[in-house]
Fold:
Amino acid sequence: MYNLIKKEGNMALIGMKRRDHYEVIVVCIICILFPLFSISINFVERLHNYFRVHSTPIVAEYLINFVFLYLVGLLYLTYRRWKKAEKKRQELEHVIANINPDAIIVVDPDRNITMCNPSIQRIFGHSVDAILNKKTDFLYLDRRRNPQKSREIYEVLEKEGFHIGLATGKKANGGTVPLEIITWGLSDNGGAVLLLRDIGDRIGAEKALRESLKKLQKTLNGTVTALATTGEMRDPYTAGHQRRVAQLACAIAAEMGFSEDRIEGIQVMGFLHDIGKIVVPSEILSKPSKLTDYEFNMIKAHSQAGYDILKGIEFPWPVAQGAYQHHERLNGSGYPSKLKGDDILEEAKILSVADVVEAMASHRPYRPGLGIDKALEEITKNKGILYDLDIAEACLKLFRERGFEFQ
Structure:
């Protein structure tokens, strides 16, 4: 398309020059063809006289006819080539005038409009004659660089000599229209070709898409909350645990400078990290005494169960892996896969710290809450051993310097 703009620009410039200097071109053609015609006649006469003197009349006549036919054939081939080129030019001018829905204008070095296509009337409401010889500022209220120019497509276009911008166009009826402006300079005369595109529909579509994404996000959040609540209803002693883990995990991620999108993913992981406990009998979850090895192994299976439940849902974040790995430890002593160091997802490392702090500080069926101080003592003691050092430091800073509290 953008190569077409270049072609259209060149043809527009040619058309402009042809119309503006038509009389000069006609005079030049006459001045060139008449002498050539005279020279050709003189040449043929001289050639005829030469052969009439130095050869038989038949040979002279034959050679003269041959030269004449050659010149006629050459003239015919030249005419055919010109007609072919003229047809292509007319096709391109037809594209400019009728097919292209965008307004295409040609400006001189002083930004005066010298040519445009009829689409200008559809976009702005001005006739072609009304804008010719006016400054381009006549068409828009403001003009600015495209804030999206860092995108790859805009970088490629600018390397090719195009310049992309946005503007608010002024309509003839006093209204406005959002525009995208693509400019390509004409090296022949210092002017430029401008393609003015009405992006009102695009902006409307983008707005509708954003609203649709908000609705989907709201639905996702509702679904996640429902899933988390379903699991906690079977284990009333840990009701709110996942929500509080999500709260602390998000605060740690924010303290570490994570992006908003990544923090949102960690929030979802926090809400769902114990969803696998839905497969564990409620008698075991609420047992007030110490668990047997068999019962503890059933509890440990919730990581795998959570992964199996979540892996089929296409979250934009690694939620299933977060649920699977949140009991892994830095030194490989965790479960279910005894992962170490960098093999553990960073989000899972954050969840593990938040999970330990919340679990130790809160009441459990088999013991009363140990309090925040004991929980932070555990993190301090094992930072860099069981828990990632940077994550542990961010957690400790939240409580000791930022005044973090569970809601």
Q: What stands out?
A: The first strand starts at residue 103 and ends at 107. Confidence is low (pLDDT under 50) at residues 4-23. The CA atoms of residues 1 and 259 lie 37 Å apart.
